[in-house]
Amino acid sequence: MSTLPQPFSESKPETQLRLAANNCPTNAACEGCSSRHLSLCNALDTDELHRFSEISTDIHKPAKQIICSEDEAADYIYNIRNGTVRLSKMLADGRRQITGFLFAGDFFGLSCKDKYSYTAEAITDVDICRFPRAKIIGSFKEFPALGERVFEMTRTELEATHDQMLLLGRKTAKEKLCSFLLTLQEKSRCLEGQDKNEIKIPMNRSDIADFLGLTVETISRQFTNLHKMNLIELDDAHKVVLTNPEAIAAIAEGN
Amino acid sequence: MSTLPQPFSESKPETQLRLAANNCPTNAACEGCSSRHLSLCNALDTDELHRFSEISTDIHKPAKQIICSEDEAADYIYNIRNGTVRLSKMLADGRRQITGFLFAGDFFGLSCKDKYSYTAEAITDVDICRFPRAKIIGSFKEFPALGERVFEMTRTELEATHDQMLLLGRKTAKEKLCSFLLTLQEKSRCLEGQDKNEIKIPMNRSDIADFLGLTVETISRQFTNLHKMNLIELDDAHKVVLTNPEAIAAIAEGN
DNA sequence: CGATGGATTGAACTGGTTCAAGTGGAGTGG
DNA sequence: CCACTCCACTTGAACCAGTTCAATCCATCG
Questions:
Q1: Which tens digits make up the pLDDT trace of A66-83?
Q2: Residue A103 dihedral angles phi and psi, to the nearest 5°
Q3: pLDDT of B242-253, one tens digit each?
Q4: Residues 29-68 of chain A whose Cβ lies under 8 A from any Cβ of chain B
Q5: Of A248, B15, B97, B253, which shows the fewest CB atoms inside 10 Å?
């Protein structure tokens, strides 16, 4: 994983159907998944997909680079091919709240008015696919199924943010971290189709802290706490094994 | 304002066009408003409105009664004629997070899948108008403008919840209360069209606390703090005058 | 008039923060 | 190949914003 900032590269897609072919790690089979990665392509047939692929641009962003910024004109929507992205909002003095982490198959920029209401940054190196937003929005009339899918994605995302509000407002540090680990597990099950208890954690402690409304130190302490309670194993900072998922789930729900 | 729970009353609407005529305190003129009360009726012409009015049921709920509960089948969508409603989620042990307050003109139940993901309760006596959800959702195809409007409302609501996540995760008690007062002010400006600094606060301290992720005591102390700082006047617990809105806005934004 | 319940205030406490120091792994350069 | 730097992470100790617990106030209502 490269960590040095580099100029981003941009190119026309070589495989026109990549949106359809590669970008749907999750689909109808994964209805249970809680987050944003209901794919758009289910809503379109092959001809329609061609049209949308043709207006797309493939972009590679190295880790740590900004993809789009809060208050910038929302000209594009983005689909993540692979890698991890964070969405965040800031206060004037630098305090940051991460509103969500996005993974392969996820979209962002869809539910904006005319400006992005958050900053999107690459956590790992990412491959993303960019579409002119006006063209997508404009084609809702022609392809109602597309609009329905976008509505469905927004709806699902709204429900997830309600859960996150409960977490931010009312859960303890330990409960927050347990909830987070379970969300990550569910996500990686969806993406990798595996039913393992081993989780890769692509983001750093500071990102987790800003997502859960805590500090880096508290995150670190809670990780060691869970380890001492024999609920997790910590291979390194970015790989965790949930040795007792049931107990973690119980804590996450406040029991 | 009645406070005793009473059996709710239910009746067919006498004025078929009440949805159109009375329930749009806000409309295009109020685009700047941040929350859920973009009206649906703008999306429909008179004939269409008649059809929707005919499938609606008027309901009166006294204060403190439950309108719909988390995990209950989401059979209806609701439009608030007047009064104030709270949406909330709970943890097993009773900790509560209020995800939003709704006022005249607001809708809820739209962005659910098949179960309500929150409990809706009347804070004051409310008059609400109930529509079978399936019929509304089903008519998106026939009336695309309706679907677009619903999407727009959901989108707007999502942006508001992102702001609330920043508040819950990163703001101090004082900043939280100032942000809340300003939101209430904007809301009452929209509803009453007045540019006053006097705000009626329909909810009690405990509701405010559960909305801001704090305790009743902290809310109370912060109210007196703001009063001592000469930023607000407190006529009684439910009526506040913002004597220095600029200073309050500065605090709310973290300055 | 006493009872009830929301709101306020006070005082002690604590979960999480802040500040500061230490650790370890990856990259760099000699 | 080793020494050095850097940076993310961890750990410790003091601190404090907000909580908890308890008492009081005060408006409303029967």
A1: 999 999 999 999 999 999
A2: -130, 180
A3: 999 999 999 999
A4: none
A5: B15
Alpha carbon distance A162, B131 (integer Å):
23
Quote the CA–CA distance of B82 and B60 in Å, as a whole number: 10
Handedness of CA A189, A192, A197, A199 (dihedral sign): negative
Give residue for tokens 């600029």: B246
pLDDT in tens, B44-98: 677 777 777 788 999 999 999 999 999 999 999 999 999 999 999 999 999 999 9
pTM: 0.88
Tokens of B244: 């220095």
Domains of chain A: 9-157 (2.60.120.10), 171-252 (1.10.10.10)
A210/B254 Cβ within 8 A:
no
pLDDT band at A42 (very low <50, low <70, confident <90, very high): low
Render pLDDT for A140-166 as a digit per residue (tens, 0 to 9): 888 888 888 899 999 999 999 999 999
Q: What angle do CA A218, A190, A25 make, to 5 degrees?
A: 125
Q: How far is the CA of B220 from the C1' of C8 (A)?
A: 7
- A100: tokens are 């969500």
User: Per the CB < 8 Å rule, is B95 touching A141?
Assistant: no
